[in-house]
Amino acid sequence: MGDNWSPYAAVLLGSAVADVAAAIVVWRRRGSIGRNSLCVVLLAAAVWSLAYALELAALSSLSVREIGGDLQYVGTTVLPPAWLIFALQYTGRVAHVGPRLFGALAVEPLVVLSLLACPPTRALIQSYPAGPPQPIPIPRLGVAYWLHFVYTNVLVLTGSAILLITMLRTSRLYWRQSITLLVAICLPLLGNAMSSLNAPPFQELDPTPVAVTLGAWVLVFGVFRYRLLDLRPVALRLVMETIRDAVLVVDVRNRLIDLNPAAQRLLGRKGSAAVGQSVEMLLPEYAAAMGNADPGTYDLQFNVDGSDHDLELTITPLADPYAVDVGRVLMFHDVSERRELERNLRQLAYTDSVTGLPNRALFSDRLDQALTTATRHRTLLAILFLDLDRFKIINDSFGHEIGDRTLAAVGHCLRHCLRAEDTLARLGGDEFAVLLPEISDPRDTRRVADKLLNALTAPQPINGHELTVDASIGVALFPEDGTDGRRLIRSADAAMYSAKARGGGRVETFAPALGEKAARRQQLEVELRRGLRAEQLRLVFQPYHELSSGRLVGYEALVRWNHPRNGLLCPASFLPLAEETGLIEAVDRWVLYQACRQARQWASPLAVSVNVSPAQLRAGDLSQHVTDILAQTGLNPTRLTLELSERTLFDDRPEALAPLEDLAAAGVGLALDDFGAGYTSLGHLRRLPFTQLKIDRSLVLALGDEDEDISIVAAVISFAHALGLSVTAEGIERPQQVKRLLGLGCEYGQGFFIGRPQATPAPGNVFHPRRRNREFGTE
What fold characterizes domain 533-775? Predict the structure, then answer.
């Protein structure tokens, strides 16, 4: 082969080009394990081939030949450690090359290259005989060369053994790939051994660089790309290509070894660009979930073609016939439609349909979670219980559709006053609740509550109406007002009722006394419902007389509750509760019926007065209900007087009072009760068919010797007479009051001085002002 050096130099140049091309192919596979170290192996082989070609071509210059011979050692010293590093990285034994390993592997190349760089020590590696250059250079090898030969071959054999043992231990399914890898490794080893030992036919030429190139291409396209045909039978291939679910097959080191077209669309990559890469590289956002997850089913969300898709990931272990784990199958099933349906159902279950806010169930769940966190971290949280004041008026006056829109507007308004981590929920009716987790200062809770009240002061435009809604807010703090959700809500509810009792439109913080009051109130509500069923209500009748003659005119029917434990209770102790709980309508109907029935039995045709609550008037059927009771009892309509308080008129719009016209036309008398205690518009007195005005007892009790007190009552009486109304004074307790009222022209009066309420009226009673005056020692 001595005269055939020129063609072999050309082969070496082609081998160098092939090595560089292989390095480029490997380098373009970004994220592939061992990419950098394998590129160094291929580039070192290219330098080796190129330097050897230079050595063969230098026929006329010994120095150029020596340079070529020395440059070969750049490749032969760098290639073995780079191959070992690749084997360690590819098999997962070393993730990153540390400074210690890199320093240890760099010692031998530095020593060899240093010996070659110094002329006195070059012969320890190799030297060329004196004389003209030979066509095929045959250098003399020094003792250091053989040390270099043994060391480099040990590194190559160690790396190759690591690769082969790893593949064989993984599964027998990899045997075909193991054979390919063995061929790729043995080619350069065999060439190097034959050249170093002058084995025929390579006594003069070194085939190792070319063998390295052949082995490199076998490695790149046979093993490194991981074409595992043994794991893809034809039937499985057809299924994988046609199935709509994305299927990825990964090995035990989480590297992709196969995928179907659906998976290519999911990843947005072609199969050739994805095979061999790690899951961490392909799906970095989900690498932890998929790389370390046990076999089973998991929920993930992917962005495919710019839209989010809910995917169900099923992880199945992959084992060979010998039960050796060789990898896993990742199957992605699109469940977006099902998840959307589940979300809609969940929203219906946990969201209020009117306001779009969380409902009671979701609020309780979030409250439990917040309590767990607050207990663990020893932080504070607060519950705000909010109830709209007089919201029933909106429902009754404008209809439930406007009421619902008002609730939605209130929810929207309140939501903008809170933090993102706060929870606003509608518990039902006109009740809202706010959860404030992780508050730093209890005073912040009061500021938030005041902010909510201030936000509600702005009118809400609803269907052409500008509606203003007030609210009462109760505040409870964890842990001082309760350590569990139920107790906290109950405490906030008690504080809210305290705010309502004080006029509404305010904030109250829970106190232990409120808890006791709330418990009593709840017990009282239960007992009142039971009392209605057990007919524990009673009527008493307070007379009212003509002041000038003392003639008995009629009786006002007053309800009492004969409580089995607390005795006879006055209306103030249970009627407000009846209004809050909706029991007032049942109470009103019972009172009206019993009053008419008993009045029908009186010997004298005296009048009977019955109070009408705002709820009874807002029910809209007052006229029909009164007509029915009059028909049932046989009472003459002219003997019945309905008393409406100022609060009733102030709460309702004029059209809500229209049924009163029908009752007045039927002969039923109408009296404005408690005049002077509220907000009555004088326009109501002109528009409505009242026949009587009753002065509130607060004005009557104030009658003294001061001219101012007399002037106020005198003005009221004069105004009533100007409208054609008779006047009845309530709460008369002293004879001086009777004298002054007579002087002012007041026609009728009632009070303890005139007659106390009694269960059995005495129709013949006559009030004698002068006799009473003598009894009290006055004239």
Answer: TIM Barrel (3.20.20)
For the segment 139-193, what is each residue's pLDDT rounded down to a tens digit? 788 888 889 888 988 998 888 888 778 766 665 555 666 677 777 777 777 777 7
Which architecture, in CATH terms, is 229-340?
2-Layer Sandwich (3.30)
Strand partners, 381: 478
Q: Helical H runs in 219-298? A: 234-242, 261-267, 271-274, 279-282, 287-291
pTM greater than the 0.70 cutoff? no
CA 517 to chain centroid: 35
Amino acid (one-letter) located at 484: D
Residue 766 has pLDDT above 80, yes or no: no
Q: With residue 627 as reference, give the H or E element that holds it.
A: helix 622-633
Confidence at residue 763, expressed as pLDDT on a 0 to 100 scale: 55
What confidence tier does 475 reach under pLDDT thresholds 50, 70, 90? very high
Q: What is the DSSP string of 334-384?
A: E-HHHHHHHHHHHHHHHB-TTT-SB-HHHHHHHHHHHHHHHHHHT-EEEEE
Q: CA geometry: angle at 44 spanning 57 and 71, to 5°?
A: 40
What distance in Å separates the CA atoms of residue 183 and residue 178, rounded to the nearest whole number? Answer: 9
Q: Are 434 and 418 contacting, i.e. CB atoms less than 8 angstroms apart? A: yes
Instruction: Classify domain 353-510 at the CATH class level.
Output: alpha beta
Residues of the chain with CATH 3.30.70.270: 353-510
Q: Which two tokens stand for residue 612?
A: 């009408």
If one counts every other C-beta atom within 10 angstroms of the C-beta of residue 640, the result is 25
Measured distance CA(170)–CA(91) in Å, rounded: 11
Best CATH choice for the domain 5-224 from the list 3.40.50, 3.40.1350, 1.20.1070, 1.10.3470: 1.20.1070
Q: Give 69-109 pLDDT, tens digit per residue.
A: 788 888 889 989 988 888 888 777 776 777 888 888 889 89
